Amino acid sequence: MKKKLAMFSLAMLLLAACSSNNAGEKKKYHEGQNMEAAESVYKQNCASCHGNNLEGGTGPSLEKIGSKYSEKEIMSVILRGRNGMPAGILTGGDARLVAEWLKKEHK
């Protein structure tokens, strides 16, 4: 009985340790994994001003935005707006996904 209790306690400890390592992790963009999702969100919400190919239009070009700004700065502009861009077009996970995609894929 003590052996079963010890094994159960060990299993619970390992399970808790594994889950706590991932609890606070931010989902990160990984090459190919979320690219289609980010492009889809961009095309639905951003392309009307920034162009289907990030070439610009009513809004500025985003073709080399990843070399100009950090992911945090891109995220700030997406969330808060800037100049003629209104705040809140994207929020939460969509904003994070597009910011990561722009930073990593458009240098």
TrEMBL record:
Signal peptide limits: 1-23
Top-level taxon in the UniProt lineage: Bacteria
Alphabetical list of InterPro entries matching this protein: Cyt_c-like_dom, Cyt_c-like_dom_sf, Cyt_c_BACSU-c550-type, Cytochro_C551, Cytochrome_c550/c551-like
Keywords: Electron transport, Heme, Iron, Metal-binding, Signal, Transport
PROSITE patterns, per the entry: CYTC, PROKAR_LIPOPROTEIN
Cytochrome c domain sequence ranges: 33-106
Record note on modification: Binds 1 heme c group covalently per subunit.
Residue positions binding heme c: 46, 49-50, 85
Pfam families recorded: Cytochrome_CBB3 (PF13442)
GO terms for MF: electron transfer activity; heme binding; iron ion binding
GO CC aspect terms: membrane
Protein name: Cytochrome C551
Organism the protein comes from: Fictibacillus enclensis
